[in-house]
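Exercise 7. Given the components listed, write out the predicted structure of the assembled complex. Treat all entries as one system.
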Amino acid sequence: MNSITANAQPLEATVAELSRAVGLLLRRLRAESNADELTWSQTVALSHLEQAGAMTTAELARAEQVKPQSMGATLAELEREGLVARQPHPTDGRQVLFALTSEGVRARRKRSAAKQKWLLDAMGALDTSEQRTLIAAAELLKRLAETHAEEE
Amino acid sequence: MNSITANAQPLEATVAELSRAVGLLLRRLRAESNADELTWSQTVALSHLEQAGAMTTAELARAEQVKPQSMGATLAELEREGLVARQPHPTDGRQVLFALTSEGVRARRKRSAAKQKWLLDAMGALDTSEQRTLIAAAELLKRLAETHAEEE
DNA sequence: TATTGTTATACTCTATAACTATA
DNA sequence: TATAGTTATAGAGTATAACAATA
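Answer.
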């Protein structure tokens, strides 16, 4: 319809394909994750804690855009497994800080590599320009996910 | 470590970021989907049937890389809601073809636009080169998701 | 009053296992 | 025997609602 051939595809079709691709890939990531002892959600929570040192339930929930109750369930499970531990918040008695235990650190290091190995291998099989596309896309997808719905 | 600056980031970091971005976006897509009367999985199944006309449980399961039992559950729910109907397979008595009913077509058309409206809006807010990146990424993500794990 | 977290409950999505019917 | 589908069961992930403690 116009001369920008790379954009000839209507945005609707791209949205549909992108949605489906994202669904397929996440299902695959979860399935691979299950081969390990950590679930997908647990892995994500642990990696936040590894980066940040200690976070509250509410902070983690905001980072992953889930409800605090949902994150609370994930943290409770990790705590039961001894991978995270609570610390009192220094100034606010309502809040609870969670941090990796030494076993949590160990588990995280040991498993994170193996966990996403298939994706690493699959990405390694792409050529350099394709890898660059995905690096850029990761940033864009994050931005899309964080777009507010209440903009209309 | 080398001169290709766009690739200076280790692939591991990209894999982690891409995984997380995909998780965030799908969670968001599901949440928006719930505002509708169709769930995410139902929507995906309906769009396959809309494109293909009629498909068997096994075909749909393969297309979405889930087990036949899982797809069977989704189809059973859609059937209960009157959005899809069974047809006997012309030559194989074991197989069952599913197709959209007229209500299924109507529901699909009516809802598909609204369903992904926020993503359409969000993508519309990106510039042309960013949109192009996502168009290319959709294809790559699909390819990644379909990579076999058993390659090692 | 507002915020943080917890407990209780339910729904969606998906899997595995065991089964029936047909090829 | 192999394949398509169904039924039963379970676990992960998430949500909403109602509550308690603290700010």
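Discussion: Strands of chain A lie at 54-56, 84-88, 96-100. Residues 30, 34, 39-41, 66-67, 69-70, 73-74, 92-95 of chain A lie near DNA strand D (CB under 10 Å from a C1').
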